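Recap from last week: sequence in, structure out.
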Amino acid sequence: MILRKNIDPYCTYCVHAKPLDEEYVSCRRHGVVAVDYRCSKFKYDPLKRVPPKPQNLAENYADSDFYLE
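Predicted structure tokens:
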């Protein structure tokens, strides 16, 4: 859930960080750090959260799959 209270304080989701690539972010307070770096100045930004991709559903259904007895 994006707006849950117990967010892990990673720099990936912090207001003070900007992504450089998949492994590093640029923090205003600590410079270039890893995306899983943690510090005490963490402030959560919910817009930086990327939701998980939806699962693929099976496409091979028969009419009998939708029939109720």
